[in-house]
Design brief:
alpha/beta; Amidase signature (AS) enzymes
């Protein structure tokens, strides 16, 4: 499989045709239709873009999917909801950056309704399904992005992440998800969930591709892996993992230590869920004010109802507490190249696990347990696959800046691949 950099280089040199890349991606999307990862396939638009392509840009000719809560001019703008049925009037900033870099948008990927969920099961089109087991969820809310990259439909997908929504589906589907530092990629033209926490991120097959894609979208140079073994903080006191996750995590950590990584236990703020909820909820309610929620998915309706009950003083306190939490995490990251921990403490649950609202609430809490912190603090976080015998398991890297996150994740990916080989 060619890397993003190689695809673009071959297009620029004339070795690859944009039209061929588009047709192959469209064909793969049709073949994977049962996964429900792609909610709108823009065949005519993608073919036209390929026909007029100028063979320029760091992402020249790369087929890409955009999460359906991100506005794309002329394409459906529904955010996965039966309550919304619009056409995009403008390209979101990140879409304009994709075009400027030479990428070709082939369609829209599935999102949990309005991105207000981490399971990928609530959408006007039905649940998104995991390529490794279609009876299991992908995680969300960037559900279709994770499934599509894992299924080989596209080598790059754009998602959003407010409490883990790039990293959770990437981890459960076995691909790489990079949530860069807060504000790195613009959220203009993205339907907001909670502006204090919303991030735009990328999903790819490899860490190198994720670093390259972010560089292409920020007009910067890709970050190379660390040359020397990193100093890694291992989060203490978080050992409640499923057996499959615990096995993959223990084996992966052992491989990194054998390869020379220095590891030491660190303490991170653990009880941050209430702070995150008190910050996210009121902002979500404000973003849906004036809209009729009667046709929203039941879990989203419930979440908005609960969020509306958060008093103003708790929102103000959450903003204050966030600064304290960020300072605590920064102090840890200043002493280490990165902190690492399992991205999600369990493998992809069955879709049936969220058949009722009580089940949905329990699964949500587990899925977001290790991912919320990076949104609350704004620090970059990358998930990459651990070697496994069964369903995918992700390793999460949290660092003080995008370059350190990408460099450390690149070193880790290289050592895990070498050990696996």
């Amino acid at each position: 499989m060619l890397s993003l950099e190689e695809i673009a280089a071959h297009v620029r040199s004339g070795q690859l045709e944009p039209a061929e890349l588009v047709e192959e991606a469209l064909s793969r999307a049709r073949a994977a239709a049962a996964l429900n990862a792609v909610v709108h396939l823009d065949e005519n638009g993608a073919r036209a873009a390929a026909a007029w392509h100028d063979r320029k840009g760091p992402l020249a000719g790369v087929p890409v999917l955009v999460k359906e809560i991100i506005e794309v001019e002329g394409l459906p703008y529904r955010c996965g909801s039966a309550a919304m049925d619009e056409l995009g009037r403008h390209d979101a900033d990140v879409v304009r950056r994709l075009h400027a870099a030479g990428a070709i948008v082939i369609g829209l990927s599935h999102s949990h309704e309005f991105a207000y969920g981490c399971t990928g099961t609530s959408n006007r089109a039905g649940p998104c399904r995991n390529p490794h087991d279609p009876e299991r969820m992908t995680g969300g809310s960037s559900s279709g992005a994770g499934a599509a990259v894992a299924a080989g439909v596209v080598p790059l997908a754009i998602g959003t992440d407010t409490a883990g929504s790039v990293r959770i589906p990437a981890a459960l589907c076995g691909v790489v998800g990079f949530k860069p530092a807060y504000g790195t990629l613009p959220t203009d033209g993205v339907f907001p969930l909670a502006q204090s926490l919303d991030h735009v991120g990328v999903l790819t097959e490899t860490v190198a591709d994720a670093a390259y894609a972010l560089a292409a979208l920020t007009n910067s140079m890709p970050t190379a892996p660390l040359a020397a073994p990193p100093r890694l903080g291992i989060v203490a006191g978080r050992s409640e993992y499923d057996a499959e996750v615990a096995e993959a995590w223990s084996a992966g950590l052992g491989r990194l230590q054998t390869a020379g990584a220095t590891t030491e236990p660190v303490s991170l703020p653990d009880d941050i869920t209430r702070t995150a909820i008190d910050l996210q909820g009121p902002e979500a309610v404000a973003n849906h004010a004036g809209r009729s929620t009667d046709t929203y998915q039941p879990d989203v309706q419930l979440r908005l109802k609960e969020a509306a009950e958060v008093p103003a003083w708790r929102y103000v306190q959450a903003r204050r507490d966030t600064e304290t939490i960020r300072a605590q995490v920064k102090a840890v990251l200043d002493r280490h190249d990165a902190v690492v921990l399992p991205t999600v403490p369990l493998v992809a649950p069955p879709i049936s696990a969220v058949a009722d609202l009580s089940g949905s609430t329990a699964v949500r809490a587990q899925l977001m347990r290790n991912t919320r912190l990076a949104n609350l603090t704004g620090f970059p976080a990358i998930t990459l696959p651990l070697p496994v015998r069964g369903l995918p398991v992700g390793l999460q890297v949290i660092a003080k800046d995008n370059e350190t996150a990408a460099a450390t994740a690149g070193w880790i990916a290289g050592r895990l691949a070498a050990a696996k080989g």
